[in-house]
Amino acid sequence: MGYSKYRLNKIFRKVTLLTFLLACIISSLSLINNTLFETFLNLSPFHSDVSKFTNIFESILSPRCSNFTEYNLDSQPYWQFYGFQHHMKLNQETLSNILKIDSKQEDEMMRLHNELLNNYLTTSFKPFADLQNKFNENDKNNNKGIIYVSGKKYYWLTMISIKYIRDILKDKTPIEVFVPIKSNDDQHCNKMTMVFSNVKCTYFSDYLSHSQIKKLSGYQYKSLALLLTNFNDVLYLDSDNIPISNINDMFENPNYLKSGFVSWADFWKRSTNYKFYKMSGIEGVASPISSTPSAESGQILINKKSHLKTLLLAYYYNYYGPGYFYPLFSQGFPGEGDKETFYLAGRVTGEGAFMITGQKTKSFGYINNKNSYVGQGILQFDPNNPSRYWFLHLNYPKLNVAEMLKNGYFSADKGQRYWTTIRYAQDDSKRELFRQSVGRDLEYEVWKLMFELLSKDFKGFLIFNEIGNDEMADYVKEHLVKLENSKIGKI
């Protein structure tokens, strides 16, 4: 027999009230006894496994010491590019003293690592065992996919990257786009699933409570997306990152198949505080790790079955990143944020990480009218072949055409090419011509795709609140014509 709408609403209210009361009881118990809290949490049907870890992080594993906010030294004089000599020493003594860390903070970080590694990142903790079983089940042939974290500020950039994959690379690898909270007013992700084949939208709010999600932002979302995706072999991409090489080659790369995790280098030398290695129990390998370059996490290639502990520890590092782990790992060097959390988590758990070392990371940009180089982004390469480029990370300026319009990018006196030169950081003697080195006219390709997105793929759908697609397409078309007519751009 069916239920009336009134009766269904009444049942729903009762379930909601019971859920609320159970949550209150669990929260109260957490203040009384950790073991009881874990028991109730493990039995709770109202939490996903990742949500259960989030609750553990928030309650039992909340740091009981002050944030890392004080510095003994100004870090800026020590900023150094990887692979270049510098007059300031960046040795163990310096790396131990840029950030001010007292004994209480050091002891607390050691306690937290011991708790995590010995009690929670083990099969004796049911949510970990459940996640491990899930990842083992997902470890099937061809369970490979690409994921992004997107949202209002990033949808357009995500569209460009996906369109390049589908239209230029002709690649059909499944794609999953993560968005923090589902909103009826936001139809961008749903529209992407209709425009592009084999693209799925996933919302954090389907797995975590709104209160849990609101405690996270920006950099912190990446580790969460990597945990939640059902893909087993995962290529994570920032929205402003465009893969320009065969995706399958990436998943079949020998270094990835051997290690299960490939991490790319940033421009900078590693600036992690040396005390971290003792805090995390890996003091014995501090020296080789400290000699690696800083990590650049605009792209991550990882196997979830072999690196579950790494992903959970990276999630913890990001959960408490802004106050604790971001300053501990970077000490005020450029790009401080989530970028070190994945590589260092791989070393702490012992699951490993292949870091591309021994090669300087390349920048691409242009030479301005003062004969000075102006960088536009990062070129990341095949781990086995530094001359073969895999990723175009367009981090400055990002190709948000609405913002570019506001900033005068499309004014009549503009129209030069901005992707003309490749060089190592701070080394003008190693300049290369962008198009000749990459092998094609990427700048023209990307702008043409942007025009198609506006004039064809999303025609009639308002991408930008500030300006309609047709009007924006006119500006993009004018710039595209300038690229076509420029001397460097002719084929």
UniProtKB/TrEMBL annotation:
Domain of life (superkingdom): Eukaryota
Predominant location: Golgi
Pathway info: Protein modification; protein glycosylation
Membrane keyword on record: yes
UniProt-listed Gene3D superfamilies: Spore Coat Polysaccharide Biosynthesis Protein SpsA, Chain A (3.90.550.10)
Keywords: Golgi apparatus, Membrane, Signal-anchor, Transferase, Transmembrane, Transmembrane helix
Biological process according to GO: mannan biosynthetic process
GO MF term (any one): alpha-1,2-mannosyltransferase activity
Keyword Membrane: yes
Subcellular location: Golgi apparatus membrane
Annotated Gene Ontology cellular component terms: Golgi membrane
Family: Belongs to the MNN1/MNT family.
PANTHER family reported in the protein's UniProt record: ALPHA-1,2-MANNOSYLTRANSFERASE MNN2 (PTHR31646:SF1)
UniProt name for this protein: Glycosyltransferase family 71 protein
Native species: Pichia californica
Taxonomic lineage from the root: Eukaryota, Fungi, Dikarya, Ascomycota, Saccharomycotina
